[in-house]
Amino acid sequence: MNDLWLKKNNQAANTYMDEVSGANQFTSHHNGYIKVPLKILRCIGLSAYEKLILMDLIAYMSDRTLCYPTIEMIARDVACSSKSIERHIKELADKKLILVSQDRKNNTYYLPNYLHCHPYLLMSEKTYEFIGGVRKQVNEQYF
Fold first, then answer.
1. What residues contact 84, with CB distance under 8 A and at least 6 apart?
2. Binning pLDDT at 50, 70 and 90, where does residue 31 land?
3. Cα separation, 125 vs 44, whole angstroms
4. Is the full-model pTM beyond 0.70?
5. Strand partners, 28
6. How far is the C-alpha of 98 from the C-alpha of 70, rounded, in Å?
7. DSSP string, 45-110
8. What is the pLDDT of residue 14?
């Protein structure tokens, strides 16, 4: 194995991810990376597949306000069956984390304007704050 793959990278994570996203040696489709709010990644009310699907839809949206990938494209990206994708998209829509319109041949997906203050995301952030506060008190008391 080439030693290049075993060397420690001393760059800050964000700088390194900028470099990685800019490299298009193997593909130019969806070149780069997406910014996903930590609130989505940490959301307690979402399953792992729901988070991945939400991130995939954000990637397809890029700089636009909507996207319309097929269920099969999302399934390929998330490594899950089409039936599972349909079920999880319905869950995301029921939780009002995405808006789905069936105007075209494929579904059209939008993010709601109130995503930044969605109850699932706010509840999760408050839970993390509470756990962090309790952990700090325990650490101060015993260590």
1. 49, 75
2. low
3. 9
4. yes
5. none
6. 15
7. TS-HHHHHHHHHHHHHHTTSSEE---HHHHHHHHTS-HHHHHHHHHHHHHTTSSEEE-SSSS-EEE
8. 78
In percent, the amount of the chain with pLDDT more than 90 equals: 45
Amino acid, single-letter form, for residue 48: A
**Cβ–Cβ < 8 Å for 58, 111:** yes
Question: Which of 114, 78, 122, 76 is closest to 98 using CA atoms?
Answer: 114
pLDDT at 37 over 80: yes
C-alpha span between 111 and 132 (Å, rounded): 29
Cα 90 to Cα 53, 56, 65, 77, 100, distances in angstroms: 11, 15, 20, 18, 9
Structure tokens that stand for 115 in this block: 């995503």
For the chain, the first-to-last Cα distance in angstroms comes to: 44
Q: Provide CB contacts within 8 A for 39, sequence distance 6+.
A: 116, 121, 124, 125
